[in-house]
Amino acid sequence: MAAKEVQSYLTRQTAWKDELRQGKMFGVLIVQTEHGETGYLAAFSGILAGKNLHPFFVPPVYDLLQPQGFFKIEEENISSINRNIRQLENDKAYAALSAELARTIQSAEDILATAKAQLKEAKTAREQRRKEKELNAQEEAELIRESQFQKAEYKRLERSWKARITTLQTQTEDWERRISALKSERKTRSAALQQKLFEQFGMLNYRGELKNLCEIFGQTVHKTPPAGAGECAAPKLLQQAYLHGWKPIAMAEFWWGDSPKTEIRHHGHYYPACKGKCEPILQHMLQGLQVEENPMLKRMQVPSQNLEIVYEDPWLSVINKPAGMLSVPGKEDAVSVYSLMREQYPEADGPLTVHRLDMATSGLMLIAKTKRVHQNLQAQFKNRLVRKRYVALLEGIVPKDKDTVDLPLCLNPLDRPRQMVHTEHGKPAITDYQVLERLDGKRTRIAFYPRTGRTHQLRIHAAHPLGLHCPIIGDELYGEKADRLYLHAEYLEFTHPITGETVRITKEAEF
C-alpha cells in the first residue's frame, strides 16, 4: 500500500519525468512510533533533479550538496585543478613542442637509417675492391682511413640528432612534470575528500550505536567504502527512523523507469539491497532488530537427494540435476551433485563433475569416473566441441523466430553474484536461440544454444533490454521470483572419450 502511494506520487511529478524515465531506485519503510502509530517513510537513491532534499522524501544522512560545506568547497578546488590540467594539456605551445619532438625523432630515424645504409654500401664497395685485386700498403691505408672517417661522421651525425632530441625532450618533460604534479595533487586531495566525506556518514542502528562508513567498511574485504555508499534509499530510511525514535517494521526498494545499460532492472519491480555498497551498512543498521532470513540466502527445497541417472557406462554418467541443487559444494553445508556423486562412485579418481549448472537451473550434467575421462571431456567443453541445448519459459513475447544475442558479460563487483553487460570489461558471450512456442500472447517457450559458457549468460541474454528483454520466469536475480527458475539443460552431445562414438542425451523439462 505504501509503495503504491509512492509510485502514484511519482507518476504525478511531471517536472521529473525525463529523469525518472532514465531509471532510479526508490524505497519505502513502514515505521511504528513510540505511541504505537504506524506510517511510512519514502526515499530515493542518490540525487534527484540535482538535489538531495525534496518534500515527501527523507533527507540524506549527510547533505554533501550544501554550498558552504567542506565537500562543495573542496570539490571546487579539485575542479580548479582539473581546469589547470586541461589548460596545460591543451596549451598550443605544449602541443607544438610535442609535435616538433615527434617530427624530430622521425627525422632522426630516417636520416640515420639512410646514413647507416650508406655506410654499409661503402663497406661493401671496399670489400669488392679488395677482392678485385691485391692492394698495396698505401691503397689499404686509404680504405682504412675512409672507413674510419665515415664511421666518425656517422657518430657525429648521431650525436647531433640525439642532442636536438634531448633538448626537446627536456622542454617537453617540463610540461609533463607540471601536469603530473597537478594530477598527483588531485589524486591526493580526492582521496582525502572521500575519506573525510565517509567519516561524516554516522550510521545508527536500532540500539543507538553509531559507526561511520570508514568503520563499517573497515571490517570488509575491500576495507574502503565504494563511491556513493550511504546514499542509497535503505540507509536513508533507517537513519531517519532511528533519529525520530521510530521502530522499522518492513522495508522495500523498487526500480522506477528504464533499465540501466549494464545492470538489469525492471520498472516497478522490487529488489534486495546491493551486496557491495549497502549490505555492510545494513548489517550494522539492522542490529537490534528482529529480522527475517535474507530470502537471497534461502535454499530452494530440493525434492530428493537421489539423482536420476539418465545415462551410464563404466567411464562416465549423465545425471538430471534438480532445480535448487548446487553443482559443487558451496560455503554452506548443502547437498550438491558432487557430494552425491562422490557417495555414488567412491572409487572414482577424478574431480567427477565436468561442468556446472546454476543452482536454480535443472538438467543434464556430465560426470566423469576417471581423471583421464574428466580431462578429455573438459577439453571438449573448452574447445566448444560439446553441443548443448537449454529450454526456458520467458515472461513476454520474443518477436523473432530465431536469432543470436551477443552481449559481453562480467561480474558486478558491487552486487555479487549478479553479472552485468559491459563492453569494456566483459568477456564475449554469445547465445543462439529459436522460439518453440508463444503462449497466450504473454509467454515464450524457447530453445537456447549457447556458444560460450559465461556465468548467468542465458539469464542475462534473456532479460537484458539489449537482448530478448524477456526474463526467464522465476529468475529472482534478473526478473521475478516464482516456484522455480524455468530453465532446463535438456540436451548434450559429445564424443565419448574411450569409444570415440558420438553420444546424444536428451532429458525433457518438467515444465
- CATH homologous superfamily title of the largest domain: Pseudouridine synthase
Percent helix among the residues? 25-40%
> What is the overall number of helices?
11
Structure classification: alpha+beta
First-residue to last-residue Cα separation: 34 Å
Name of the CATH class of the largest domain: Alpha Beta
**Could you describe the largest sheet, including whether it forms a barrel?**
9 strands, mixed
What oligomeric state do the depicted chains represent? single chain
Task: Please characterize this protein's 3D structure.
This protein is an alpha+beta fold and 511 residues long. It folds into three domains: 2-62 and 201-297, no CATH class; 87-196; 308-506, Pseudouridine synthase (2-Layer Sandwich). The protein has eleven helices and 16 strands. Strands 6, 7, 8, 9, 10, 13, 14, 15 and 16 form a nine-stranded mixed β-sheet that branches. A three-stranded antiparallel β-sheet has the order 2-1-5, sandwiched between helices. A two-stranded antiparallel ribbon has the order 3-4. Helix 3 (70-89) packs antiparallel against helix 5 (137-200) and helix 4 (92-132) packs antiparallel against helix 5. The radius of gyration is 34 Å and the shape is flat. The chain starts with a helix and ends in a 5-residue tail after the last strand. This is RNA pseudouridine synthase.
